[in-house]
Specification:
Shape: globular
Number of strands: 0
Largest sheet: none
Structural class: mainly alpha
Distance between the termini: 20 Å
Order of helices and strands: HHHH
Number of domains: 1
Mean pLDDT: 91
Helix content: over 70%
Radius of gyration: 13 Å
């Protein structure tokens, strides 16, 4: 399952060059929501990898907002990426 989310994120990076941030923002935010739901019910061993992937998605959300000129939202997502990433225990 984790590999799926990594592959999808890689595809989002590639698609950003072709589609632009407006087309990708909603799917990226939806993936973050799914990952957060999974994290809440995950076994302890899976929490850190889920947090790592969530941080990467949150970082991308920040970039997409920045590309759209939505600076406050970009800062919010970038801070969230840092907090999520810092939440990792390893």
């Amino acid at each position: 399952m984790l590999d799926y989310f990594r592959r999808v994120l890689a595809e989002h990076y590639a698609a950003d060059k072709m589609l632009g941030p407006r087309s990708l923002l909603k799917p990226v935010l939806a993936q973050i929501e799914v990952l957060d739901d999974l994290r809440r019910s995950a076994r302890t061993a899976h929490v850190d990898p889920l947090l790592q992937i969530m941080a990467q998605y949150a970082e991308m959300a920040g970039w997409l907002h920045q590309d759209l000129g939505e600076v406050p939202a970009a800062f919010t997502w970038s801070r969230r990426a840092g907090r999520v990433g810092a939440g990792r225990r390893g």
